[in-house]
Amino acid sequence: MTMDRRTFINSLAVSAGAAFLPGTEGIVRTFPISCNQYSWITFYDREGKDWGANLDASLKDFASTGLKAYEPAFTQADEVGKLLPVLKKYQLVMPSVYVNSSLHKADEATKSIESVLAIADALKPADTKIIVTNPNPLKWGSPDNKNDAELAEQAKNLDKLGAELKKRGMTLAYHTHDVELRAAAREFHHMLLATDPKNVSLCLDVHWVYRGSGNSQIALFDIVKLYGQRIVELHLRQSKDGIWQEAFSDGDIDYRRLVAALKAMNVTPHLVLEQCLEKTSPKTMDAVEAHKKDLVYSAQIFKDWLK
User: Where is the Xylose isomerase-like TIM barrel domain (predicted)?
Assistant: First the structure.
């Protein structure tokens, strides 16, 4: 099944476009453009529906857009087995997944690492290669920041998790929202400076870095300059005048400049659409139409990577 899955990924890459990620043994792997489940959750919520309540119906909608790869979020290993047959039915692949983790306290970190590794083991039949994690804040919605001891503990555990995933042929990609950019971005920087690049890569969530730094492209591109070589995945979202739009398009962030900057570094990350809705977003289209538009625009912006 693993060999068939690899062959299937390669065939989809030809038709849907591919990003290139160096594997743990120097093998170049090709992944089609993917989409995170969170964007679908926000569209479904707006329509009064529950994404994933009926996995078959949800993934049927997903596949109808032309998307070939899916990035779900998992909280426990048994969720993987429920999803795999539905992905197979709709000929969808899962190059990357998003997992929660709590790493700033030693006791919580031990349990969290065990949980993520159990999920990783359950993912073997899917040939998943990237595990994205955003370590939990102290408390969701709290203005409090982690102290130095908690940051040091988190970085140690992040590196440990990455080393264990590497043994499984997987890459750990550190992800952030806006919280990690507070207080001189000390949490963001320490997670990258205090971990081994061989163990911890970066999933650059472009818009959260932009928003977390006060809607600053200067800050965004400074981070690309500092850590570009560690970027293995991009989460793609766009806003206009600070407001998330329904579809990926031209807007506040200059994605053409981002492509040029990464090309200059010879970095070609996995592309994951995550064009989400917020309360002030326009309301002109449904999830299927929006994601079809996402794919069209992505093909224009990332055309040099999709040959």
Answer: 63-279
Amino acid 17: pLDDT:
41
Report CA-CA distances (Å) from 83 to 55, 58, 86, 146.
7, 11, 5, 35
User: 269: which DSSP letter?
Assistant: P
Averaged pLDDT score across all residues of the chain: 91
Residue spans of the domains in the chain: they are 32-305
pLDDT tens track for 283-298: 999 999 999 999 999 9
Amino acid 304: pLDDT = 82
pLDDT in tens, 130-158: 999 999 998 877 889 999 999 999 999 99
Whether the Cβ atoms of residue 198 and residue 158 lie closer than 8 Å to each other: no
Fold (CATH) for 32-305: TIM Barrel (3.20.20)
Question: Can you name the residues that pair with 234 across neighbouring β-strands?
Answer: 204, 271
- Reduce the DSSP state of residue 204 to 3 states and report it: strand
Q: Which long-range contacts (CB under 8 A, 24 or more apart) does 25-30 make?
A: 25/169, 29/95, 29/129
Rounded CA separation 200/165 (Å): 10
